């Protein structure tokens, strides 16, 4: 939890999801609750004459957004109050005297940040103050894969898992079975996942994930890595007595390497795309045998 509501009144606007520095999270009557990046919590009213790291955090934000020309000093002066008034005016909320009341800004460690509003923070709700207002995920995300026992038997170690969230795709690797391979709640086997690059699985897009202690994302286990190459009918591929694999083209035999097969096709390395090959009279999918080698009659 990153914020407790400090205001009484009617909730007029809610903005859950990914928020940027200075964005409004929700509106109670005419009080706009915003988030600001700060290592220090905002624990008091900020008025002219207030000094401290919390003031400096507000000034840094105002400076970054172009409201304050002076360098952050940590002292809430008249110039800071004027900058706050201009900021609030752009947000469309009452400007007042340029002071910031306790509860109007909430400190977060980074932005953009996906926030989730409390159950009572809904448009039309009557608040009295003290309600749980905002939560956000902090720290590193841990990814686990839950599958049935039957599915688990088909997942070899080090299998690749592709995780999808919106337009983003993350790649992970099956690391180990949690709880010594025992089945958890619901009879599911839980695998812990790691990044193949030793970075965070979600990389630079971790902050785009929904807030919450546990979220569910679509995933697929890639048991057999995809194979790319030139495909030919299986009946076009021959092997000689030495085990060499080749195909026959109008210009002669070409040595190739089989890197995959399925559904009557063979994926080859060593054959240029577009090269015509001879298809032998064979109804058996896969690599055929021939007593002659490449170039022999």
TrEMBL record:
It comes from the Bacteria. Keywords: Hydrolase. InterPro entries: Peptidoglycan-bd-like, PGBD-like_sf, PGBDSf. It holds the Pfam family PG_binding_1. Residues 51-94 form the Peptidoglycan binding-like domain. The keyword Hydrolase applies. One of its GO terms (molecular function) is hydrolase activity. This is Peptidoglycan hydrolase-like protein with peptidoglycan-binding domain. It comes from Nesterenkonia sandarakina.
């Amino acid at each position: 939890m990153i914020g407790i509501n400090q205001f009484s009144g009617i909730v007029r606007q809610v903005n859950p999801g990914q928020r940027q520095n200075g964005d409004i999270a929700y509106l109670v009557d005419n009080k706009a609750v915003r988030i600001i990046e700060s290592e220090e919590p905002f624990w008091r009213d900020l008025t002219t004459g207030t000094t401290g790291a919390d003031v400096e955090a507000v000034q840094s934000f105002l400076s970054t957004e172009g409201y304050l020309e002076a360098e952050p000093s940590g002292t809430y002066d008249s110039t800071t109050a004027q900058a706050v008034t201009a900021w609030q005016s752009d947000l469309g909320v009452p400007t007042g005297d340029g002071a910031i009341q306790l509860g109007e800004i909430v400190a977060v460690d980074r932005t953009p940040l996906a926030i989730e509003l409390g159950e009572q923070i809904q448009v039309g709700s009557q608040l009295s103050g003290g309600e749980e207002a905002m939560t956000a995920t902090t720290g590193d995300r841990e990814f686990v894969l839950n599958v049935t026992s039957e599915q688990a038997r088909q997942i070899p170690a080090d299998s690749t898992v592709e995780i999808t969230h919106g337009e983003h795709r993350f790649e992970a690797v099956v690391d180990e079975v949690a709880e010594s391979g025992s089945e958890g709640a619901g009879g599911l086997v839980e695998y812990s996942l790691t990044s193949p690059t030793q970075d965070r699985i979600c990389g630079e897009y971790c902050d785009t994930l929904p807030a919450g202690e546990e979220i569910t994302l679509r995933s697929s286990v890639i048991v057999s890595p995809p194979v790319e190459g030139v495909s030919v009918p299986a009946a076009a591929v021959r092997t000689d007595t030495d085990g060499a694999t080749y195909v026959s083209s109008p210009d002669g035999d070409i040595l190739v390497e089989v890197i995959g097969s399925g559904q009557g096709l063979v994926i080859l390395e060593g054959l240029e795309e577009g090269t015509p090959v001879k298809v032998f009279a064979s109804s058996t999918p896969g690599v055929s045998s021939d007593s002659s080698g490449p170039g022999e009659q």
